[in-house]
Amino acid sequence: MDLGLVPPSDAFPDADDPGPDPASGLRLVVCSACLLLQLGPTAPSAPETPIAVDSQTALDHARASVARLVEDEGIAPGARFAAYDSGHGCSWAPFLQEAGLEEADATGAGDVDVLVDVHHLMHDEDLDAVVGRHAARLAPGGVLVAEVFHGRPLVTRTLVDTIRHGHFTYLTLLAAEPLLARHGLVVTRAQEVPSYGGSLLLTARRASEDPVVDPGVAEVREGERRDGLADVAALQGFGTRGRVVARAFREHLEDLRDRGRTVAGYGAPSKAPVLLALARVDRDLLPFTCDLSPAKTGRRIAGTSVPIRSVDDLLAARPSDVVLLTWDLVDEVSAQLAARSAGTGWAPRIYVPLPEPREVSLPTWPGDRNALRQNAPHEQAP
């Protein structure tokens, strides 16, 4: 899949910087031998990332994942752990410490009982080498825990904006099992989780220790096979579908503009430059977006002139439609906007571009998220 020239996703230029921004070819390829989804040969170096704000959704997921890990794997207080994360926030380390585990230096040597890698693997160009280093650090009886972007929803739900510079690999269980086996590890648990639009949470232990393998591993493996993840030809159709998604996004914004609707975005995630570049969306269709991170305020989405403002600016502007660029947080963002706009009479329509384009209304406040009214996938606002 060739996405064309795309700027680095972690670049957030100052809003008054006219550009042009550097851009490089972004291609996703699949290995016919090992089925690994990976970036093609052109990728720019990633600039420094402004500090993001951890979403409550991500924090809740991290806390629950650690609690489940401790229970399922029988990890006792005092066990030593090393935590590697993506650098974009929401480390599991605080929750592992709350559970009574003792942190070891993630950059140093020495055996650990638990090695946790949360969306760190994909940031290393040499995937085999980093897995080898992880395996070498495991103490006897130790467990490796890895959460990665899952190739299954990426392909089947056409999550085209998940592909970005700096994320070199996208794993499936079908690709992860032989990768781990080369380093003497066997997958003992596999669970599909909703974080970041669709991730895969794996645990692995040394094969030489003859660990028990949970039945969920076979279930995930068979699900991937049913969805064509073992078929290179099926994977190649992803590119065509990605362009359909981008075209639908642009057409929706054009329709809102033509009907005189006022529009703003919510969120400035690292995935935004990819979607906006592929859809050829700029400030004429999306006048601004907002973000909770103060470090991003006053900047713009790379490759565009779309400025990033504060959430207060969004509330003051009161657009009729809000485009949710952080579409994987639709429930959380809708609840936040409902709370902050309560009593003001502002009730925008929320457009969620992925995985299925749809419009939603803010939930009533106070109330629960079940009050969120979801309309037909392509229903237009009046």
From TrEMBL:
Q: Which residues form the C-methyltransferase domain?
A: 195-344
- Keyword Transferase (UniProt): yes
Q: Which residues form a coiled coil?
A: none
Q: Membrane-crossing residues? A: none
* GO MF annotations, alphabetized: transferase activity
Name the UniProt key words of this record, in alphabetical order.
Transferase
What are the start and end residues of every segment in region (Disordered)? 1-20, 362-382
**Pfam families assigned:** Methyltransf_14
What is this protein identified as? Transferase
Q: Which InterPro entries match?
A: Methyltransf_Zn-bd_dom_put_sf, MeTrfase_14, SAM-dependent_MTases_sf
